[in-house]
UniProtKB/TrEMBL annotation:
<protein>
    <recommendedName>
        <fullName>TLDc domain-containing protein</fullName>
    </recommendedName>
</protein>
<feature type="domain" description="TLDc">
    <location>
        <begin position="56"/>
        <end position="274"/>
    </location>
</feature>
<dbReference type="Pfam" id="PF07534">
    <property type="entry name" value="TLD"/>
</dbReference>
<dbReference type="InterPro" id="IPR006571">
    <property type="entry name" value="TLDc_dom"/>
</dbReference>
């Protein structure tokens, strides 16, 4: 798989300057993330007669960042859209049915899941998780492996004059959070009555998508991934590294529910990884 992933790397070309041969870095072509996505099949229930190319809540750069953190065996494979609130609405029944349909289609093949959530009134908060298996209504106990991880783009400040210390990464860099080797538990994912929890213990899940799919909560302490701050309260320093915000207040669009940060969901996408490979042009 390493050879396949090498296609993502910038290439160099030989050049001669002043009679001496050297190398210079050629500009890397911009990656079109659509090339890595499978078409969505026609759906009679949704009254869609033709296949369509889906959109994704990630930029090409963010998509490639996730690729580098996926297990090698699933890198460079096309992603398949299982559920999208823009197509299916905020229906937990549609979410569960889509997952069940994909598991039947897979016939025992490995099918990891990538959950992507945009939150806030403008959808400016982006967070999600890679989990080693597709969520099912029957996952009342925690499932998944140490390959699971979290990601987020920290929320932007509401304005330059805000007293809050929260700020967005200038180029939308993803922050990745993997499970530490000495993690206190293996609470990677659980589904219960339509809700999806990723992580657990401490003060609760690192990501908790409520059963109405309208609210996402992120606890301020999740030992599964070694988090000591809520994903909704992280901000990015200018050097690209994430740090817990020092301010006592919440950033715009984040509120406290039961003492833990929560935000309204704007969009939800659930993807899996198919069997076909894509080539980055």
């Amino acid at each position: 798989m390493g050879n396949n992933f090498a296609r993502f790397l910038p290439f160099s070309q030989s050049a001669k300057a002043g009679g001496a041969e050297g190398t210079r870095e050629a500009p890397a072509p911009q990656f079109e993330v659509g090339a890595a996505l499978e078409e969505v099949e026609p759906d009679v229930y949704l009254k869609r007669d033709t296949a369509m190319t889906p959109s994704i809540l990630l930029t090409g750069k963010q998509f490639l960042t996730l690729q580098r953190h996926l297990p090698a065996r699933v890198q460079s494979r096309r992603w398949r859209l299982l559920f999208c609130s823009g197509l299916h609405g905020f229906s937990r029944v549609a979410l569960q049915n889509s997952c069940t349909k994909e598991l039947r289609r897979a016939r025992g093949k490995e099918r990891p899941a990538i959950l992507i959530i945009s939150a806030g009134s403008e959808g400016n908060i982006l967070l999600g998780a890679y989990v080693s298996c597709i969520p099912q209504a029957s996952n009342k106990r925690y499932v998944g492996t140490e390959e699971s991880f979290l990601f987020c783009v920290p929320p932007p400040s509401s304005s330059s004059s805000s007293s809050s210390s929260y700020s967005s990464s200038s180029d939308g860099e993803l922050c990745i959070f993997t499970a530490p080797e000495n993690a206190a538990n293996h609470y990677f994912m659980r589904c219960d009555n339509g809700s999806i929890a990723v992580g657990g213990g401490g003060k609760g899940p690192a990501i908790f998508l409520h059963d109405d799919l309208a609210t996402v909560s992120c606890s301020t302490f999740c030992p599964t991934f070694g988090l000591k701050e809520s994903l909704l309260l992280l901000n990015a320093r200018s050097n690209g590294y994430c740090d817990a915000a020092a301010a006592a207040g919440c950033p715009s669009d984040v509120r406290l529910e039961g003492g833990e940060p929560a935000a309204s969901v704007r969009s939800i996408q659930l993807w899996t990884v198919g069997d076909e490979y894509f080539v980055a042009s």
